[in-house]
Design brief:
Length: 397
């Protein structure tokens, strides 16, 4: 992890660098042919200094563009977070049906995406209703990341750089949250995209253990041309069971002049309202809670978040079986890998499986999975009589 002194020294050297110090190029570069132009001088950031007044004007223009774009998208507040093999097109569309106002794709590997037609066709699908859309890439090479981004910039509203993945695979591949140890590289990644793409660049990050380092970090991203920052309110060593730090997200929001999204501890709409109030963020993201309840942003909540005897809530007329059937119909329209479908079956029907483990065991043994089989399985679970409704708040006169 970068120390406070290392981070401060780097920022002193680079904070006034204008995000468009590279010559902006407007021609599209097909795969295998890179755009010509001046490369960012990695070894000497100070070579690109401009006058302070020019830098200030440039920053104001960047902030104005960032907000103009966000307003054009109608400032979405309820957002599906990026989830590996889980925030794919059918699931995004299901969440959108139930109130999600924007969504991220799963993380895409920039090198494979740039090189492989097969990978692109399997891992990235969208449709005209799938907007606003963030397409997220991981990577550590600015040129390769740019090649991948060229492929999607016409189909999305932000190209997002994954700077938050804490998993072992990210450590091995040197991407995600482990790039926090190499701030010059992060700056070059953001700057490369921001100065060459027509679509704005966003970054999803985690916190440094030190709030001071976190604030300097987000200012670095902003100065590099980032138009939106999504903050997961945990460090890369903290896991979901540890409460997200909303106060740190609040500090980030007050330190930058571009839109900020909050991520962490969003389980139902009361959490959404409280998070927006505490952090001042421009929107919230949810991940794991949506896997359990894709209708979360529609005001539905699972029984886990309704106290027994609480007369403020009532059956919302939607249960997990209905959500599963709706998801499967979307998968028939927008095909995805069976492994993804199976994961969502466990996510949405898991509580039913806990009560009826024999149905789960039969599902595990099934070698010829089909949509018809899962439809019948939902009917079989319903016929057992145990229901898991989703609840909504009563309308009180």
């Amino acid at each position: 992890m970068t120390s406070t002194n290392d981070l401060s020294a780097f920022l002193i050297q680079t904070h006034s660098l204008p995000p468009n110090s590279l010559r902006r190029l407007s021609t599209f570069s097909p795969l295998g042919r890179r755009r010509s132009g001046d490369d960012f001088p990695k070894s000497n950031f100070s070579a690109a200094y401009t006058s302070s007044s020019s830098t200030e004007r440039q920053h104001i223009r960047s902030e104005e563009k960032a907000w103009a774009h966000w307003r054009k998208l109608k400032q979405p507040k309820l957002i599906v977070a990026p989830m590996y093999d889980a925030s794919e097109l059918p699931f995004r569309m299901l969440c959108r049906k139930y109130g999600a106002e924007a969504a991220y794709t799963p993380m895409l590997h920039s090198r494979i995406f740039a090189e492989s037609t097969k990978y692109r066709s399997k891992e990235f699908t969208t449709c005209k209703e799938d907007r606003p859309l963030f397409v997220q890439f991981c990577g550590n090479d600015p040129e390769i990341l740019l090649e991948a981004a060229y492929r999607v910039e016409s189909y999305c509203d932000y190209v997002d750089i994954n700077l938050g993945c804490p998993q072992r695979i990210a450590r091995t591949g040197n991407y995600g949250a482990f790039l926090m140890d190499n701030l010059p590289l992060i700056k070059s990644l953001v700057t490369k995209l921001a100065t060459n793409l027509t679509t704005p660049v966003s970054c999803k990050i985690r916190l440094f253990p030190s709030l001071h380092d976190t604030i300097n970090y987000v200012k670095l991203l902003e100065d590099s041309g980032c138009s939106l920052i999504a903050v997961h309110g945990r460090t890369r060593d903290e896991r979901t069971k540890e409460r997200a730090n909303w106060d740190a997200i609040k500090s980030v929001k007050s330190s930058v002049k571009i839109p900020v999204l909050a991520n962490g501890n969003i389980r139902h709409m009361d959490d959404v309202d409280k998070c927006l109030e505490v952090t001042g963020a421009d929107g919230v993201m949810s991940a794991e809670a949506l896997l359990d309840n894709p209708a979360l942003f529609g005001g539905f909540r699972s029984g886990d978040w309704v106290a027994e005897g609480d007369d403020w809530f009532e059956d919302g007329g939607v249960d997990r079986g209905r959500l599963m059937v709706e998801y499967l119909k979307l998968c028939e329209k927008y095909p995805v890998k069976w492994g993804i479908i199976v994961s969502h079956v466990y996510g949405m029907l898991g509580k039913w499986f806990d009560v009826h483990p024999d149905v789960r065991d039969d599902f595990n043994k099934e070698k010829e999975l089909s949509f018809e089989y899962i439809y019948r399985m939902v009917d079989r679970l319903r016929a057992r009589g145990v229901q898991f409704p989703l609840y909504v708040k009563k309308i009180r006169s």
